[in-house]
Every structure is written in structure tokens, then in C-alpha cells.
Amino acid sequence: MTKRVACLAGDGVGPELMAAATRALDRVAALHNFDLDDRHLPFAGEAVTRSGHPLPASTRAGYRDVDAILVASPHEPAFAGVKADLHLAYRVARVHVGPSRELVVVGPVGEWANETAISRAFHCAASRRGRIVSVGDSPVWRDAVAAEASRWDGLELELAPLGETLVRLRDDAHSLDVVVTETHLVDAIVDAAAAFAGSGASVAHAWLPDDGPGVFAPGCTAPDDEAGFGVVDPMGMLLATSLMLAEGLQRRAASQTLERAVGSAASRHTRDTREFTDAVIELLPQSRTDVEHFDEVWR
Hints:
Layout: E1 2-8, H1 14-31, E2 35-40, H2 44-51, H3 57-62, E3 68-71, H4 78-85, E4 88-98, E5 101-108, H5 114-127, E6 131-135, H6 139-149, E7 156-159, H7 162-171, E8 178-181, H8 186-197, E9 203-209, E10 214-218, H9 235-247, H10 252-266, H11 273-287
């Protein structure tokens, strides 16, 4: 099975981050027995240099028929153009909150996609620890959550206000696993989780459609003046790659392997670009604790 990924590196620190991501992605694909077709397309400053446009027609055509789009430069204005090209319905953010511990935040891109986002959040919780917290006060939101909850047995659902959730993120983030929330609260919860975790580089984002490729990117990147010195922190980019494996390529076992390796490396190594990436790759075999047969169970 071949998975097709459009890689949009851009310029500045983007090429270094994309190189780290594709190195790890190649290794985890080999470990989990699937083929990878990674298509590196001109984007942002790189594309301006080549063609005079930050998002040329050839790049737009190149990412329309892939399984997922991985972006290393989410701060570029051209990134908004990529998202505008896609029929995006919901967001997923993954925040590293401790050694081998990730918080997942799911929310719709608009109220019209509430049911889609809530459904995906429940599926995600079922594949993890079976616990989900809903943060939202509007009657429409609560009704949609209650309707989805009635379709599930064995999941632990908790309804919580925003203030209480922010306090838990500060004092006991490990008690939270999957949070589903309304559109206008996603950024507040993700930003708070990253702040309490101590680094914006610990965040990965995904914007996903009902059908077609989703787009994946780190929460933040280093300034472009750090490019070329080998000091760019690749953690957020590697987390975005792990998130892409799960949500974009439907390879959850591979995603969990990479996620565990990143978490283990984060507790032992500095974020020197190559050293950290090498450590993650070295940890991949021992980070695989599941069986490939179950890789396609959650969709």
C-alpha cells in the first residue's frame, strides 16, 4: 500500500524541519510495512524564487490528489491559500504535555461541522484511553454531544466549563486525554496546554475535511534567522508527522510508534535538529508496542 504525501517545506527553517520529518517518516513506514510517495512541491518563498508566486498552480495541482499535506512553514501567508483550497471541516491538535503523554484537542472549523468534529473526537477517544471531555455551553453543542454519546458504550464522557478545564491543564494535564470543544475555544485550550507544558514547539495541528486530503503542520517554528545552524527544534514537526500518520494516512500504529519515540527522545536529548531526529529514529523499533493487524481498526 502506497501513501502519498505532499511536502511543502517553504524556505527559512522549513527545509531543515521537512528533512527531519521525511527521515523519520521513511523509517517508520519501513518499520510498519507500507510504501511512501513523498512529493516535494514549491511553496512560499521557495516557490517565489522559482516561479514568482508563493502558491503556483503546479503546487496546487500536486497536492489535490494526495492522501495528506505536510507543511513545515505554517507562518507563511501561502498557508492560508492551501487551507482555502480544501473542504476542511474540523481541527485536531496534539500537545505534548509530559513524557510519552499527549493531549488531543478536537473542534469544528465552524458550527456547521459540530457533528463531524464530535464524532471524530469520540472515535479518537475510543482508540486511546476511552475518556473524553466536552467543553462547550451552547445548547446546540450540548445536544450534539449527547446525541453522539448515546451511540457509544464504554466511553467516559465528562462535561466541563472552560475555566475548570484551564485549571486542570495547569495543575493536572495528565488527567485529560481527548478534549472536544466548540470552534471559538479550540485555540484557547491548545495555547493554554502548550504554555503550561512549557513550549509552543510541543504542538502539532491538523485541519481535516470530510473527504480528501488534510493538512498538517507544527504549532510554531523557529525564526528563519536560525536556519542553517542545525539548532532548529524539530519536535513540533515530528509530532505533526505523527498526527498526519494517524489522521491523514490512517496508519495509527505507525503514528503511535513515532509519538512514543518523540516523547522518549524529548526527555533525554537537547533539541539540536540532527541529534534529536537521530534519537527519535533510533528509538523507533523499541517504541513499537502494538501489532500491525490492528492498524486499520480505527478510521
